UniProtKB/TrEMBL annotation:
Signal peptide range in chain numbering: none
Function summary: Catalyzes the phosphorylation of D-fructose 6-phosphate to fructose 1,6-bisphosphate by ATP, the first committing step of glycolysis.
Binding site for beta-D-fructose 2,6-bisphosphate: 472, 529-533, 567, 574-576, 630, 656, 662-665, 734
Keyword Hydrolase applies: no
Binding site for substrate: S164, I165, D166, R201, M208, G209, R210, E264, R292, H298, V299, Q300, R301
Species in which this protein is naturally found: Cyprinus carpio
Record's protein name: ATP-dependent 6-phosphofructokinase
Molecular function terms, GO-annotated: 6-phosphofructokinase activity; AMP binding; ATP binding; fructose-6-phosphate binding; identical protein binding; metal ion binding; monosaccharide binding
Catalytic activity: beta-D-fructose 6-phosphate + ATP = beta-D-fructose 1,6-bisphosphate + ADP + H(+)
């Protein structure tokens, strides 16, 4: 549907608020969602209201309910907390309180609510909706409203977005705030590991999660912790001895530190609490290790939102508005969720009921059922495999099934090391002998190949760059020598981690199969590039870290202009010919424009953008932000755009430019990239094992399915034969022919107050919560 048609179809007013009715759990990342709802609402012609202090503000009315304007949500993307406030409200739990709230809404003609909160807030909103007709009848009876108003506002529509750092809401892969909380945790863990290593200490870190262990579990994966304790999966009896054995064995291999992650709600199989102090005392008494406890507390709720959370909240906010536009009197209340990389709409109460079922299962000590309902047992299995499997899984380490080599190709990307670590440890757990190749295919043909063992990859998850080394060398020129090395080391499978060069390498190895039997083995590629320009996947390892670097830099640059005259910043990003970083980084940073190769522009477009910024500056906006992809246009360079804006904006604003360069490629990997790399590598190793066991060198010469790229496509991780990706690829510009994120560009323009059309063909449709029971063999492979 065209944007104009979408704007014309709605004249309703709706309200946006965030609060928690039963349990107060503020997440510091709601502002991006509030901004998106307000601006998308205004874009479609709606009148949007803030309700300050959550349900309490709705009950109290008055100045707590104010109309929102475009400018009222400016400069809030980078702000923590929630600018419209959030508070407990006992009054809303009573019918009398809800009657007051209904009266306040009817007075302003509000019949659509966008609720941002947890299951308590959303349950309260649904109850309010169910009682709405009765509340209006009571208001008519009391003479507070007339019959005409009761008929005019006869239906209340609800759409929810989940804001919770615990990620404890069933039906969505990620809730708003979770990724930022993981950032806070990993920042602390990385800092603690430095001092722990210096003093040979064991650290016990307690993270939030009274009823959900997601933060503990994922942060344990992201930092390579030795042990994790979560409420949904209490340890078996005798866990104390097993944990101490693991810690002792880690020290005996030369490690100078141990990290134990404990969720605040961790319990044993009998329901007894396992606190951080109990774990500390246990380690001190049994092992005598110097042990410290760090309780992170509310630092996890604060701070600047991550790039992921800003993008997630913006996408969900827009989807929530679209859902409200499409509701009817018979439409059930829905919640906007994330499934893989796609926004979906699910019945609100189905999600709430499943979330409550988790707690019931835990209260009944049905822990396996609780994990199944959570849908995250795969992460726990993965932690066991990568963290402690070499001690507690039953296989004979003296026997290896196959030899598997792993190498990095192309430019370095944050998260590569986490992927290598996961591949090595999962491979060893499955009985393979793992080999590491240094410096990509250049090192391969030179024979820089050596066996890599479990302990060799300890501490790799938090390291940036590529510890194996990586080069852009393609194998075609040295195919004879590479085949010779494959024979010499009896390599039975190959795992490549890299960007577009890795794709080209995989294609060249496939072509060489007709001449060299050595390459008739399982070949798998994992996409790892900050440019996110690999066909066959929506996301690549390293891209999230680069986005965070861009967003953090843009935040600082914009802050530098505080208190000064009006100023526009021109920022150049990396990405080759792929505009992913400029476009998605622009959405996360609140950019006014982003120039990319995929969307050609000319001098008229540049002039239009200057005029648009000039108009915005006249309304009181002090800062503007423009991003440009490095290869967006050979003539309209960053210098040219800077000079054009400087000249055309003279007297209204001045300009500054900044080329971010390789700072986007460096730094410690983000929690998302660490976990994405870990999970995708584990899945790849299981695929390799399956292929080797099924048909080792039997028919692989012509078997397209034996050379695959593993990528995320919309909702799932998919293995795609690399030869099929050739038709999807623009090899001249090294980009996919179709890129999903281009659909986000109109969203960035709408939120920057451009008049543009918005394609809703990909918007979510109401679905139902489906709980798939994974087979035992799939438990580790699924993501």
């Amino acid at each position: 549907m065209a944007g104009k048609a979408l704007r014309d179809c709605c004249t309703v007013a709706f309200q946006c608020f965030s609060n928690y009715m039963i349990k107060y759990k503020q997440t510091a990342r709601m502002n991006a969602a509030v901004r998106a709802v307000v601006r998308m609402g205004i874009y479609v012609g709606a009148k949007v209201y803030f309700v300050h202090e959550g349900y309490q503000g709705m009950v109290d009315g008055g100045d707590n309910i104010k109309e929102a304007t475009w400018e009222s949500v400016s400069s809030m993307l980078q702000m923590g907390g929630t600018v419209i406030g959030s508070a407990r409200c006992k009054d809303f739990r009573t019918r009398e309180g809800r009657l007051k709230a209904a009266h306040n809404l009817v007075q302003r003609g509000i019949t659509n609510l966008c609720v941002i909160g947890g299951d308590g807030s959303l349950t309260g909103a649904n109850l309010f909706r169910e009682e709405w007709s009765g509340l209006l009848a009571e208001l008519v009876q009391q003479g507070l409203i007339d019959e005409e108003a009761s008929q005019k506002y006869s239906a209340l529509h609800i759409v929810g977005m989940v804001g919770s750092i615990d990620n404890d809401f069933c039906g969505t892969d990620m809730t708003i705030g979770t990724d930022s909380a993981l950032h806070r945790i990993i920042e602390v863990v990385d800092a603690i590991m430095t001092t722990a290593q210096s003093h040979q200490r064991t650290f016990v870190l307690e993270v939030m999660g009274r009823h959900c262990g997601y933060l503990a579990l994922v942060s344990a994966l992201a930092c390579g912790a030795d042990w994790v304790l979560i409420p949904e999966m209490p340890p078996e009896d005798g866990w104390e001895e097993k944990m101490c054995q693991k810690l002792s064995a880690t020290r005996s291999r030369g490690s100078r530190l141990n990290i134990i992650i404990v969720a605040e709600g961790a319990i044993d199989r009998h329901g007894k609490a396992i606190t951080s102090s109990i774990v500390k005392d246990l380690v001190v008494q049994r092992l005598g290790f110097d042990t410290r406890v760090t309780i992170l507390g509310h630092v996890q709720r604060g701070g600047t939102p991550s790039a992921f959370d800003r993008i997630l909240a913006s996408r969900m906010g827009v989807e929530a508005v679209l859902a409200l536009l499409e509701t009817t009197a018979n439409t059930a209340a829905c919640v906007v969720s994330l499934c893989g990389n796609q926004s979906v709409r699910l019945p609100l109460m189905e999600c709430v009921q499943m979330t409550q079922e988790v707690q019931k299962a835990m209260d009944g000590k049905r822990f396996e059922e609780a994990v199944r309902l959570r849908g995250r047992c795969v992460s726990y299995a993965l932690f066991v495999t990568c963290g402690v499997a070499n001690y507690f899984l039953s296989f004979d380490c003296s026997f290896f099934n196959f030899n598997v080599a792993v190498l990095n190709v192309g430019a370095p990307a944050a998260g590569m090391n986490a992927a290598v670590r996961s591949a090595v440890r999962v491979g060893i757990s499955e009985g393979h002998k793992m080999f590491a190749v240094s410096d990509g295919f250049e090192g391969f043909y030179k024979g820089q190949i050596k066996e890599i063992k479990w302990a060799d990859v300890g501490g790799w998850t938090g390291q940036g760059g590529s510890l194996l080394g990586t080069k852009r060398t393609l194998p075609a020129k040295h195919i004879d020598k590479i085949a010779e090395q494959m024979r010499k080391y009896n390599i039975n499978a190959l795992l490549m981690i890299g960007g577009f060069e890795a794709l080209e390498c995989l294609l060249q190895l496939c072509e060489a199969r007709s001449s060299y039997e050595e390459f008739c083995v399982p070949l798998c590629m994992l996409p790892a590039t900050i440019s996110n320009n690999v066909p066959g996947t929506d996301l690549s390892i390293g891209a999230d870290t680069a986005l965070n670097a861009i967003v953090e830099t843009c935040d600082r640059i914009k802050q530098s202009a505080s208190g000064t005259k009006r100023r526009v910043f021109i920022i150049e990003t990396m990405g080759g010919y792929c505009g992913y970083l400029a476009s998605v980084g622009g959405l996360a940073a609140g950019a006014d424009a982003a120039y990319i190769f995929e969307e050609p522009f000319d001098i008229r477009d540049l002039q239009s953008n200057v005029e648009h910024l000039t108009e915005k500056m006249k309304t009181g906006i002090q800062r503007g932000l423009v991003l440009r992809n490095e290869n967006s246009n050979e003539n309209y360079t960053t210098d040219f755009i800077y000079q054009l804006y400087s000249e055309e904006g003279r007297g209204v604003f001045d300009c500054r430019k900044n080329v971010l360069g390789h700072m986007q490629q460096g730094g410690a990997p983000s929690p998302f990239d660490r976990n994405f790399g870990t999970k995708i590598a584990a899945k790849a190793m299981q695929w390799i094992t399956k292929k080797l066991n099924e048909s080792y060198r039997k028919g692989m010469k012509d078997n397209k399915d034996s050379a695959c790229l593993l990528g995320m496509r919309r909702r799932a991780m998919v293995f795609q034969p690399v030869v099929q990706l050739k038709d999807e690829t623009d090899f001249v510009h090294r980009i996919p022919k179709e890129q999903w994120w281009l659909k986000l560009r109109p969203l960035m323009k709408i939120l920057a107050k451009y008049k543009t059309s918005y394609d809703i063909s990909d918007s979510g449709q109401l679905e139902h919560v489906v709980l798939r029971r994974p087979k035992e063999s799939e438990a580790m492979a699924a993501i």
